[in-house]
Amino acid sequence: MLGAVLIGLMSVQASYASVEGVMSIQGKQAKSIVQGSNLGKLTPREVKKLTREQQDIKKLEQSMKVDGVISSEELSVLFAKLEISRKNINRLSRNSISTSAKTAKKLSSRDDQSRSARSSSRSINELGR
Hints:
Elements: H1 2-38, H2 44-64, H3 72-94, H4 99-128
């Protein structure tokens, strides 16, 4: 009987530790999203998508807590969702569609237009000589 009680307490402690792990991962992912946004690696649309994904995970976690216990199966689902979210954050942070890439492309386009205009101007001046 004592053994069963100890095993039960150990599983509650393990579950609590795992829930803390979920919360820790969510916090790190939220920081990654904010940092990606601040650095221009994520577009506002990407931030919205990733934030919605985080909110969905939080809602799922809360619905799992309704009975007061998150089972190991439920934790597995949460960790799988967090892993998918991590991959999405990394993929979107590293894609070529970012606010900085768009800004760089615009600046490059302006430079090209400026060079083209100067070149045309020189050509016209040389024709006039």
